[in-house]
């Protein structure tokens, strides 16, 4: 295993292997077999699993009611760049032991922000040079980079939507630096995560100006990255609330509208998070379908929420039925366009052992793999597809086919309805569809 650095942080944990569902080894995959071919691709190719730098290496378990509970053995150096290198060593040790191919980061996950913009940029450039060595030695790649334009107090009123142009300019500078880092690391994509791009009260908000400023900002960032040779896809990550009451990237439909309104459809797709979908009062599979319908199913942040909690709890996915329904959409859409599946999830506050980080990722990968296997079998072997086709068969011929071809007028509909009389009542058979999924689960 090619690691740079002398310290092993996850001692006693070797490479995680696929052992099958009969294995009683908790440090093994039961369903995720990277080389198993499903629907024409290996699981490795379908998923492109990635580790989230922020939760895995930076999240110490703090919440609104108390400080962190986890003491990590990395990032202990007093010099911020040296601490960042230690964190990078831990990151690549973890990713390679998991057998994943990718990682994701926000700029200041990599290294602590400095007091000045120029010093922050210098720090990022130093750690990027180190990460280039790590990537070359391990073969691990960057799925996407992004910038944290929401945590610092300067962004309390937003970044690209801030009413103060000086803050907008600072956000632009930060995004430029993050784009430079992503390009230097051969990142495959770049994400815009609008954590505070919205408003709390319309009384003090010029909504039209703020939304137009988002469009301007995204176009400027896109144009700069393309001028620097970036060939990847840009993603918007929909997020309905928390911390801002009304966010401009509320859900997939809203974000698609933004992309199209500002002429970004040739460069942008969506990075869809499970927990954000449910906070928007949608299902994960609904959001995937909305994105797929628009040709914008780009990437996934895999997690789940606590359905009794009204915030973004970022728990690891373990709901096989939910994931199976999502994988039905995933397979029928032909998979993701450019992105992968990033575990934007964290172990619970009271899960304080380092091995818990492995157990959580193993469970998440197995949940997605099991969902994929079930969905593939449902599509291949069950009556699901024929039932769905039959339900819409009235549009396959006759007047229904003419309607979908745009050949009928409203008067034609009127005349046809007069001839046919009261339509037949036809059952939706929802319980049958649900039973089919349970049968193959």
Automatic annotation (TrEMBL):
Keyword Metal-binding in record: yes
Active site: 106, 109
InterPro entries named among the record's database cross-references: Xyl_isomerase-like_sf, Xylose_isom_bac, Xylose_isomerase
Metal-binding found in the keyword field: yes
EC number: 5.3.1.5
Residues at which Mg(2+) 2 binds: 273, 276, 312, 314
Main subcellular location of this protein, as a coarse class: cytoplasm
Subcellular location: Cytoplasm
Classification via PROSITE patterns: XYLOSE_ISOMERASE
Cofactor remark: Binds 2 magnesium ions per subunit.
Binding-site list for Mg(2+) 1: 237, 273, 301, 344
Keywords from the named record: Carbohydrate metabolism, Cytoplasm, Isomerase, Magnesium, Metal-binding, Xylose metabolism
Source species, domain of life: Bacteria
Cofactor(s) needed by this chain: Mg(2+)
Membrane-crossing segments per the record: none
Broadest EC class assigned to this enzyme: isomerase
Catalytic activity: alpha-D-xylose = alpha-D-xylulofuranose
One MF term in the entry's GO annotations: xylose isomerase activity
Quaternary organization: Homotetramer.
Family membership noted in the UniProt record: Belongs to the xylose isomerase family.
UniProt name for this protein: Xylose isomerase
């Amino acid at each position: 295993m090619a690691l740079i650095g002398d310290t092993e942080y996850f001692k006693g944990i070797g490479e995680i292997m696929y052992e099958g569902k009969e294995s009683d080894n908790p440090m093994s995959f039961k369903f995720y077999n990277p080389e198993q071919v499903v629907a024409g691709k290996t699981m490795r190719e379908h998923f492109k699993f990635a580790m989230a730098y922020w939760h895995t290496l930076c999240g110490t378990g703090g919440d609104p009611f108390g400080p962190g509970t986890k003491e990590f053995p990395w990032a202990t150096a007093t010099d911020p760049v040296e601490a960042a290198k230690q964190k990078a060593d831990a990151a690549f040790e973890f990713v390679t032991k998991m057998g994943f191919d990718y990682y994701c980061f926000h700029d200041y996950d990599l290294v602590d922000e400095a007091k000045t913009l120029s010093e922050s940029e210098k720090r990022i450039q130093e750690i990027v040079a180190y990460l280039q060595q790590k990537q070359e030695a391990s073969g691990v790649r960057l799925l996407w980079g992004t910038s944290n334009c929401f945590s610092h107090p300067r962004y309390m009123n937003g970044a690209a939507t801030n009413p103060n142009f000086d803050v907008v300019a600072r956000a632009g500078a930060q995004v430029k630096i993050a784009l430079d880092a992503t390009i230097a690391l051969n990142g495959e994509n770049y994400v815009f995560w609008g954590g505070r791009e919205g408003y709390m009260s319309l009384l003090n908000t010029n909504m039209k100006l703020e939304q137009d400023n988002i469009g301007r900002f995204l176009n400027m960032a896109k144009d700069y990255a393309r001028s620097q040779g970036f060939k990847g896809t840009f993603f918007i990550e929909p997020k309905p609330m928390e911390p801002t009451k009304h966010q401009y990237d509320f859900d997939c439909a809203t974000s698609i509208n933004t992309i199209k309104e500002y002429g970004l459809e040739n460069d942008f797709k969506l990075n869809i998070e499970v927990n954000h979908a449910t906070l928007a009062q949608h299902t994960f599979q609904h959001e995937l379908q909305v994105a797929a319908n628009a040709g914008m199913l780009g990437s996934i942040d895999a997690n789940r929420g606590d359905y009794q909690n009204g915030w973004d709890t970022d728990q690891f996915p373990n709901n096989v039925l939910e994931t199976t329904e999502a994988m039905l959409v995933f397979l029928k859409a032909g998979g993701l366009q450019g992105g992968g599946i990033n575990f934007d999830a964290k172990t619970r506050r009271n899960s304080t052992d380092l091995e818990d980080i492995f157990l959580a990722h193993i469970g998440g990968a197995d949940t997605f793999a099991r969902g994929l296997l079930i969905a593939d079998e449902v599509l291949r072997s069950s009556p699901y597809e024929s039932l769905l086709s039959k339900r819409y068969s009235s549009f396959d011929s006759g007047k229904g086919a003419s309607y979908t071809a745009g050949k009928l007028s409203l008067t034609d509909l009127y005349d046809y309805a007069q001839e046919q009389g009261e339509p037949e009542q036809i059952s939706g058979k929802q319980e049958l569809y649900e039973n089919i999924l349970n049968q193959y689960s």
